[in-house]
Amino acid sequence: MSRTVGDGLSELRGKLAAAGIESSAREARRIMAAALGVAPDRVSLMQTDPLPHAAEDRLSGMAARRCAREPLAHILGLRAFYRHEFRVTRHVLDPRPETEVLVEAGLGAPFERVLDLGTGTGCILLSLLAARPGAEGTGTDISEEALAVARENAQGLGVADRCNLLKSDWFSAVEGQFDLIVSNPPYIAAWEMDTLEPELRYEPRGALTDEGDGLTAYRAIAAGAMAHLGPGGRLLLEIGWRQGPDVSEILRAAGFDSLRILSDLDGRDRVVSAARTLSGP
Ligand SMILES: C[S@@+](CC[C@H](N)C(=O)[O-])C[C@H]1O[C@@H](n2cnc3c(N)ncnc32)[C@H](O)[C@@H]1O
Question: Which of 27, 30, 125, 254 could lock onto 222 through a cystine, CB 3.0 to 4.6 A?
């Protein structure tokens, strides 16, 4: 007798749990849905359906990758972030739910021109542009492969005509002024890299760490941001949860004021918000 979707699902759940994956039930449903080519909420209605051979093959391939702790978003090629789905490959950081705090903060005040430094998938910039139909944006990255993914996502969200994606080492190729600058830069210190969860081995190292003390990117961004921010403009930077005081100090020393630290849904420091004073140089 052929196996059912329910049989495959419970076997997969067991394998994922044995590999140390916490949300094994939810992930098993997502993987089964991808193997069957249906939406995840259909899977529970298909428990008694026979599991087709082609789906069984796809399932075992995806299960092996996930049990080796490859991120689910890499296997599915997609990640839901804020209000949209983003294409994700091994060349970009898998967008994290914590980063949605930065998007919310960006949307908390009006802006017409936004710059996103280190755009990766484009998840921050493109979410902001999709929510503000009158705004224009520039996204930069040092990685050409990441920029190709961001371009594909810009097309997918229908904002490509309002979005300029360019290769730049922080501000090196950026021209003009913006009223909002955002960034989620690599902020993990070199010494922390060996202590992280196994999934991070599959992400681009240059998206995670500065190979230094975790603050190198903030120093570079603070040094260049004032020249590219109009009077009254805002700067929003994602941070590691212990970096609030250090990043605030770097920004204060660079002449920013109205410094605030915003928390994520777990109550951890996640974003430093700063402004260029209206009367400044
Ligand atoms: C933590 S990831 C953030 C990606 C995306 N913004 C997000 O929030 O998911 C950091 C990004 O910064 C880029 N990056 C690293 N060094 C850079 C540099 N010197 N100039 C510009 N981008 C850089 C990486 O390639 C990576 O895409």
Answer: 254
Question: Structure tokens of 68?
Answer: 């080796």
Q: Is the CB of 40 under 6 A from ligand 1?
A: no
Model confidence at 278, pLDDT cuts 50, 70, 90, reads low
Q: What is the pLDDT of residue 85?
A: 96
Please tell me if the CB atom of residue 122 comes closer than 6 angstroms to any atom of ligand 1.
Answer: no
Pocket test for ligand 1, best of 117, 138, 140, 142 (most atoms within 8 A of CB): 142
User: How many other C-beta atoms are found inside a 10 Å radius of the C-beta of residue 45?
Assistant: 10
Measured in residues, the chain has a length of 281
Condensed to tens digits (0 to 9), the pLDDT of residues 175-209 reads 999 999 999 999 999 999 999 999 999 999 999 99
Distance CA(153)–CA(189), nearest Å, equals 29
Ligand 1 atom closest to 81 (CA): 9
Q: How many angstroms separate the alpha carbon of residue 56 from the centre of ligand 1? A: 37
Spell out the domain ranges in the chain: 5-68, 87-275
Question: 153: Cβ below 6 Å to ligand 1?
Answer: no
Q: Which residue has the tokens 């805002």?
A: 234
Among 217, 133, 231, 142, residue whose Cα is nearest residue 182:
217
Q: Which residues pair with 139 in a beta bridge?
A: 116, 165
Q: Which CATH superfamily is domain 87-275 in?
A: Vaccinia Virus protein VP39 (3.40.50.150)
Tell me the torsion sign for CA atoms 25, 27, 30, 34: negative
